Amino acid sequence: MHTRGFCRRSNAHRLFHNPNPSFTYTPVKTLTLSQIAAVLDCTPPPGPDRTITGMAALTDATDSEISFLSSDAYLRNFAATHAAAVIVHKRAKLPPDNTRSVFIVDDADLAVAKVLELLAPPVQRPPAGIDPSARIDPSAQLAENLAIAPYVVIGHRSTIGPRTALHPGVVIGDDVTIGSDCELFPNVVVRERITIGNRVIIHASSVLGTDGFGYRWDGSKHAKIPQIGTVIIEDDVEVGSCVCIDRAKFGSTRIGRGTKIDNLVQVGHNVQVGPHCIIVGQTGLAGSVHLGQGVVLGGQTAVRDHITIGDGAIAAACSAIAEDVDPKTVVSGMPALPHRQSLREQAALRRLPDLVVQVRKLQEELRKLQNPKQPRGNGS
Asked: pLDDT at position 365, please?
């Protein structure tokens, strides 16, 4: 590890500075059908040397692009597509007279991901070295092979691991540890005393280590409760844009290894997220929530404080979780209930207007039975 000072005029910085301050970019890649077949472990279709320049939906693909068919619902689009070849889920029922080039796979979505990984242009990154406009405290420890873009700030005693890239405007507070092969996109803020593991990706404008939302009414005002804990981000986590992960009141807020967090997610203080969870956009986790391994939270899910969600549980979008969720349970609704029960209640709710009409008719018939009209006399 090497210590770097403030780098506008340091001689050490000149060893790492790229004289071309522009970001590097490589043109889009191309593949042949035979290369795609090898990646997917499929038999090459006719014309194996045909060049593929991209991937698109069945309705949009050109004769130089590949597409995919994941279910029978899109067979009409499959018949009309101009795609050079199509990745097809093995359960799809293709026409018996099909002559189109296809790759039959067990999982179309996973196959698409493999091909996209090969076709994707490289992510725009700052050049290797340290930009002269970066502000790096002399006590910071920087590994080799870093890419530090313009206007990055790194605080006292912070450590940055090898091959990590910090995009423009990233701010790293004091006593932060960031591992190897990480990438922090523009304007990410990592507050003091935060630990980030290896191969972590944090997208633009996310903030790690904001004070937890802790106040107590003292009789005249909301008194702020000091938040003296930290945040720990384990290996292989990806955090979307504009995500806020609050520091703990004491102890740590922890995001488990391999977890993926979408944009615009709020993680409250002392939350414990287990490994390999999926948290979709606009979800909010209140303080001290515990997620087990492999939990999936759909978009706009709200979880109240001190709730425990067991391993493998799934919450549908817009769930409002106010009670603990058992492992491998699927919940939905507001408030969140077991999914089948929630569906039954929603079905009953849709029938409510008709039921109201029926009840009114029954009430009227009952009134007539209880109060029959008296027969008129004959005047005798």
From this structure: 87
Percent of residues in the chain assigned helix, strand, coil, to nearest 5: 15, 25, 55
If we measure between CA atoms, which residue out of 54, 34, 28, 31 comes closest to residue 103?
Answer: 34
Q: From CA 351, how far away is CA 348, in angstroms rounded? A: 5
Report d(CA 299, CA 264) in Å as an integer: 10
- How many other C-beta atoms are found inside a 10 Å radius of the C-beta of residue 34? 14
**CB–CB of 173/190 below 8 Å?**
yes
Cα(255)–Cα(235) distance, integer angstroms: 9
Is 17 among the residues known to form the active site?
no
C-beta separation of 293 from 314 below 8 A: no
Catalytic residue among 13, 17, 203, 269: 269
Q: What are 39-93's pLDDT values in tens digits?
A: 999 999 899 999 999 999 999 999 999 999 999 999 999 999 999 999 999 999 9
CATH of 129-340, one of 3.30.700.20, 3.30.200.20, 2.160.10.10, 2.70.70.10: 2.160.10.10
The Cα 8–Cα 131 span in angstroms is 8
d(CA 134, CA 168): 9
Q: For residue 294, what are the contacts with CB-CB under 8 A and spacing of at least 6?
A: 274, 275, 276, 277, 311, 312
Angle at which helices 339-350 and 352-370 cross, to 10°: 60
Q: Which tens digits make up the pLDDT trace of 15-24?
A: 334 444 444 4
Query: Would the pTM count as exceeding 0.90?
Result: no
DSSP code of residue 74: G
Nearest-angstrom CA–CA distance, 110 and 357: 50
- Give the residue from 302, 296, 254 showing the smallest Cα distance to 276: 296
| CATH 3.40.1390.10, applies to 31-119 | yes
Distance of CA 1 to the CA centre of its chain: 33
Chain centroid offset of residue 26 CA: 26
